[in-house]
Amino acid sequence: MDTRLVMNxxxxxxxxxxxxxxxxxxxxxDTVPATPHALFEQWFDAAVEAGVSEPQVMTLSTVDADGxxxxxxxxxxxxxxxxxxxxxxxxSPKGRQLTQRPEAAMTFYWPATAQQIRLRGKVRRLSDExxxxxxxxxPERSRASILIGRQSEVLxxxxxxxxxxxxxxxxxxxxxxxxxxxWGMYALTPHQVEFWQSDAERRFTRLRYVRVGTxxxxxADVSWERSLLWP
Length: 231
Ligand SMILES: Cc1cc2nc3c(=O)[nH]c(=O)nc-3n(C[C@H](O)[C@H](O)[C@H](O)COP(=O)(O)O)c2cc1C
Prior knowledge:
Elements: H1 3-15, H2 36-49, E1 57-63, E2 69-75, E3 78-80, E4 83-89, H3 93-100, E5 103-110, E6 115-125, H4 128-136, H5 140-148, H6 158-174, E7 183-197, E8 205-212, E9 223-229
Antiparallel strand pairs: 1-2, 1-5, 3-4, 4-7, 5-6, 6-7, 7-8, 8-9
Helix pairs in contact: 5-6
The chain binds flavin mononucleotide.
């Protein structure tokens, strides 16, 4: 088979697909709220209203100790003054990366509203109570799966997984209070957040909030400077 021809056919199939086909939203950057938290909530609610599929899923990017990047999808669990929350196993690659280098980026892309939101900031593990509350709020099967650990290790056979799940499910059923010592709730506290809106005439609107102020990350002396960015 001619690999070059196959590549070309694939390339043309890719090019036949429309990108940013969603309904472009009006984005008046003169009337935005003072914090990115408030704008995020506005955009999120509008995205749900517009039927964006799973808007709570985003890409979480981290770096290895040696600086090499890594990224994967995770679910946004909350957003408050501490930041944007997600849950992960501390022994997973992302968990270890966050222990070694507690900083990350998050990227949301919402096709139906043709919007992207990007955040960068420090990540910290939340309190033991918060980790416990998240873990205990999950269904038994999910808790059993977390208790297996070993996330992203090589799996030799599906039977090994079935066996491990069966074993942990039995433990969870017998001891409903069982808590994984490695389950973590984390919050990314952004130092910058960018809101990106597509436009029918390709005049994309980009608004970046940058945190200013030297006090505690969640303190009252934190404020945000806003700038437009060239698309
Ligand atoms: C839609 C979706 C949501 C996911 N949500 C989470 C999540 O909230 N937490 C998590 O640890 N993994 C989640 N995963 C699995 C991760 O993408 C990833 O496969 C796993 O956490 C291992 O990542 P790591 O090897 O980088 O640690 C999700 C996957 C998908 C496709």
